[in-house]
Amino acid sequence: MMDEHRAIAFIVDDDPDMRESLEFLIQSVGVATVSYASAAEFISAFQPSQPGCLVCDVRMPEMSGLDLLEELDRMGIRLPVILMTAYADVPMAIRALKLGAAEFIEKPFSAQAMLEAIQRSLADDRKRRTSLEFWDDFAKRMGSLTFKERKTLELLLSGVPNKTIAARLDITERAIEGRRASIMKKLDVNSFAELVRHVTQYELLFPEVRTVLSFDSL
């Protein structure tokens, strides 16, 4: 059973000697590996929640490395992919990069070059997953705001003074301060500047799930 918290370097290559060589090399620096003889085998076993990277040969029977990249893109899987090939050409490299390949390595390659590519890919995957976890948590926090708090937040973000907000919502300024404190606590921010920055970035990153009501709807 895979450890969902430990990054894994997945190896996909139809050459058993290459798979064994890569496993030995990668494991020598303390990175766990799992290998597959075909792209189809990898796709059927991989869980998107598993952190790591993929080291894949370009030329394989049935489904090539480039075909695998296309399939991962279609499935919405953003795992960093390192492609290996002994027959590199510019069009192939460009296609690979356009499909989202993190690295493109020509055989024969040095052990150091491969290990550095893997470390970069694992670091990129870790940063991406950390960011996704943060914004997923923030989305839940946004969802915890009440209807009245969302209305107040929209007005606060528009720069309207508390006195004007209170008049518009027909409540006291003290009530506005209370709502503002509640909003900041729920969103886990320590200052109004942090509140504005997080909510603004959240709405830019995820416009399709915008939680705050529009000003015109108030």
Q: What would your notes on this structure say?
A:
With 218 residues, the protein is an alpha/beta fold. The protein has two domains: 8-129, Response regulator (Rossmann fold, 3-Layer(aba) Sandwich), CATH 3.40.50; 144-217, Winged helix-like DNA-binding domain superfamily/Winged helix DNA-binding domain (Arc Repressor Mutant, subunit A). It has helices spanning 16-27, 39-45, 65-74, 90-98, 111-143, 147-157, 162-169, 173-186, 192-205; strands spanning 8-12, 32-36, 52-57, 81-85, 103-106. A five-stranded parallel β-sheet has the order 2-1-3-4-5, sandwiched between helices. Helix 4 links the parallel strand 4 and strand 5. The protein is elongated and about 75 Å long.
Gross CATH architecture of the largest domain: 3-Layer(aba) Sandwich
What is the end-to-end distance?
Answer: 52 Å
Q: Largest sheet, described in full?
A: 5 strands, parallel
What structural class should be given to the helix and strand makeup? alpha/beta
**Strand tally:** 5
Strand content: 5-15%
Mean pLDDT: 87
The value of Rg in angstroms is 24 Å
The CATH superfamily of the largest domain is identified as Response regulator
Helix content: 40-55%
Write down the CATH class of the largest domain. Answer: Alpha Beta
- How many distinct folded domains? 2
What is the count of DSSP helices, taking H or I runs of 4+ residues? 9
Shape: elongated
CATH topology of the largest domain: Rossmann fold
Sequence stretches where pLDDT stays below 50 over 5 or more residues: 211-218
Instruction: Give, in spatial order, the strands making up the sheet with the most strands.
Output: 2-1-3-4-5
SSE sequence, one letter per element: EHEHEHEHEHHHHH
